[in-house]
Amino acid sequence: MEKTDIERRMAEFRSRLKKLGLKVTAQRTAVHEAMLKLGHASADMVTEEILREGKTKVTVASVYNILTQLASLDLYQHRMSSNNKMYFDVNNRKHMHLYDTVNHVHMEISDDILYKNIEDMLLSKRFKGFKVDGLDIQILAHPTRRKR
Predict the structure, then answer these.
(1) Alpha-carbon dihedral sign for residues 119, 124, 128, 130
(2) Tell me: the pLDDT tens digits for 71-120?
(3) CA-based angle 16:42:118, to the nearest 5?
(4) Is 11 within a domain?
């Protein structure tokens, strides 16, 4: 991500926090900046990135609390991985994930046509006693021996 894009997204983030009545703190700003760089990350990964930058002091617990709060405000998405870690995603647009079950890494799949086809099919289905709120598509996969 280019520096000007990060600056624009940081300005949008600060504005959104203010609209939500939240203070723009050094910790929240550092967490969001790290998430913009990482894309998909656990609290441990975000904490490491912030400490590597050296801009502010944080703990894994405080980072996790901030990530959870931002996810509850729909600024991030979150998902549990098969290694029982919560991963957060800074991308809120409709998309799918390929989850590497060996290395525990989420990768975005940008295929709007496939997503739309799946969404249309599932949203037209009736599930007795339930109404579908949305989709969270995660494809589980493992690396093959040869690189493609």
Answers:
(1) positive
(2) 999 899 888 877 788 889 888 778 888 888 898 888 888 888 998 999 88
(3) 75
(4) yes
